[in-house]
Amino acid sequence: MIQEGIPFNPRGAVIYHCGPVIAGDTLLVAGPTTSARMNSLTKPMLDAGIAGIIGKGGMNAEVRQELTGRAVYFAFTGGCANLAAAHMTLSGGYFEDLGMAEAVWRIQLDELPLVVAMDAHGGDLFDTVLQHALTIFQSDVNGKKQG
Amino acid sequence: MSTDNSRLMREITKATCTVLREAELYLPADVKSRLNDAYEKESNPVARRELENILKNIAIAEEKKLPLCQDTGIIVIFLTIPPTIPYSNDLLLAVREGVRIATGTVPLRPNCVDPLTRHNSGDNTGPGIPPIHVEPGDTLSITVLPKGAGSENVSQIRMLNPSDLSNIDDVIIKAVLDAGARPCPPVILGIGIGGTFDGAAILAKKALLDPVDTMTPHEERLLERINSLGIGPMGLGGDTTALAVKIRTAGCHTASLSLAVNFQCWASRRATITIALKS
């Protein structure tokens, strides 16, 4: 894809991590997919000028750093494919020969209840929550050893 | 005889389509009830919103008769066959054909690719896919467990040292921490303890078929510890990281302690159909 060039204008676009179910030219259901799978693929898209990412599960420290000063990661509830589709209209596609889940789809979005989970200032709600969970686990394990 | 047989095979294909559609559209009542309880009890406002989205999504799927989640999964199948039905390749092909047809009619997302070329078969079938597990039974029944990749990808299998037994709960909790936000929490954990390497994995998978409205004291203890971590729905924080923990065990080698943890997302889809046989 990078060799061939990006077939849409990435500047200001929002990338949605999603492999939808499409019937004809209708977006039937379209919830977010696990964003971490795209960790190593995200820097080129940010460099190309995307303004945001919508996905689920968050991304790694490298992406967190790359987001700083230029883009935001929004979390949408995983599995909520019908709720998502209710706010979306399909308006085109690229690389459709690769398959339904593999293609790039152009979607018009009309309001979606999102959480800013990784901001443009290095804030990362996923990481904060996970670090806290690790602390609880560690003190639990240590407590058992001492007991 | 052969006409009767092909009629039965057609019936199996049709029943597979029917039960698969039901599983993809409607969440089982016991899972839904767990989600409702979690929503009532949840104290974190972000988590409440996430659970609210989930409950709304379930309602829209029911109303629109569309799959709950766009990841309609790899269709894991469990068959029971009574003594009167011979176990044959035809039987497996009939089930497989049902998955192929349902891909177009429900519709399902084509998810099955070649592992190396990544070429998508387009119909959710391929070598070894759908996996079909067969057991003897009193009735001819088809159970489907559509399994999404988000939760499957963070599942773990460990060959522990038998002396690690006292720490086995810690290993399970560590798997939940490793998985973090990725498996679409609140999750259900299917755990297999014992068996051979492959045996532990199928135990864990089968544990995901077990109803989640009852749990053993060990399962309850694990659930409580997991929820004390505060990972919450979608890993954004909250009281509800898991909905249930289900454990199955089997005998194992005296030198082994196999452990498989199969994660299931909140959209824990499963359904069973029994085919009435003419006597």
Describe this structure in words.
With 147 residues, chain A is α/β, with parallel strands linked by helices. Chain A contains four helices and eight strands. Chain A has helices spanning 42-47, 61-67, 81-85, 125-146, and strands at residues 14-16, 21-23, 26-29, 52-55, 72-75, 88-94, 104-109, 115-118. In chain A, the strands form three sheets. A four-stranded mixed sheet of chain A has the order 1-4-5-8, with no helix packed on it. With 279 residues, chain B is an alpha/beta fold. Chain B folds into two domains: 3-26 and 68-147, no CATH class; 150-264, no CATH class. Chain B is globular. The mean pLDDT of chain B is 97.
Topology:
The complex is a heterodimer of chains A (147) and B (279).
Chain A: E1 14-16, E2 21-23, E3 26-29, H1 42-47, E4 52-55, H2 61-67, E5 72-75, H3 81-85, E6 88-94, E7 104-109, E8 115-118, H4 125-146
Chain B: H1 2-25, H2 29-41, H3 45-64, E1 74-81, H4 89-105, E2 132-136, E3 140-147, H5 149-152, E4 156-160, H6 168-179, E5 187-193, H7 197-207, H8 217-227, E6 242-249, E7 257-264, E8 271-275
Parallel strand pairs in B: 1-2, 5-6
Antiparallel strand pairs in B: 1-3, 3-8, 4-7, 5-7
Helix pairs in contact in B: 1-4, 2-3
Can you summarize this structure?
The complex is a heterodimer of chains A (147) and B (279). Chain A has 147 residues and is α/β, with parallel strands linked by helices.
